Amino acid sequence: MTFDPVDYLDDEEAVTAYLDTAIQRDDVEVFLDALDDVARAYGMGKIANEVDVHRVSLYKSLSKQGNPSFATVKKVLSALGFIVPTSSNLRCSQASVKPLNLMAGSCGLFSPIFMFPFSICTA
After folding, report:
1. Are 58 and 50 in contact (CB under 8 A)?
2. Torsion angle (degrees, nearest 10) of CA 24, 33, 97, 111
């Protein structure tokens, strides 16, 4: 039997820790692989519908041979409940924003991949 991380991405905490670990690896391919795993865990068809792309296109985009645009990555993160904070979307109260960078325990740390702090807004 082959190990598939999707089998273990069954709650918000596991997903957040998994993406956080991938971001800390400072390797875009590792992060995109993790994002693909999370999208598969949530349901690629459901995510594709939410980001308004065909399911097959999203599979290809997030695959090892894919090269998704930043817009696609941002839309997928948004469909999963994550936000890339900007000055215009920081209206979530600090109490309702959980940092994606849980390992470091700080909301203000920057992702080495995109240079944005990733967070999930629970408001």
Report:
1. no
2. 30
The burial class, CB within 10 Å (0-12 / 13-18 / 19+), for 86 is exposed
Q: For the chain of 123 residues, list the mean pLDDT of each consecutive stretch of 10.
A: 91 90 89 95 95 94 92 92 69 50 35 43 48
**DSSP conformation class of 84:** -
User: Residue 85 — φ and ψ, nearest 5°?
Assistant: -60, 135
C-alpha–C-alpha distance, residues 22 and 73, integer Å = 14
Q: Phi-psi bin for 115: left (phi > 0), alpha (psi -120 to 50), beta?
A: left
Domain spans in the chain, listed from the N-terminal domain onward: 5-121
State the Cα–Cα distance between residues 90 and 119, nearest whole angstrom: 10
Tokens of 20: 């956080």
The answer, as to whether pTM is greater than 0.85, is no
Task: Fill in the DSSP letter of residue 119.
Answer: E
Distance from first CA to last CA of the chain, Å, rounded? 40
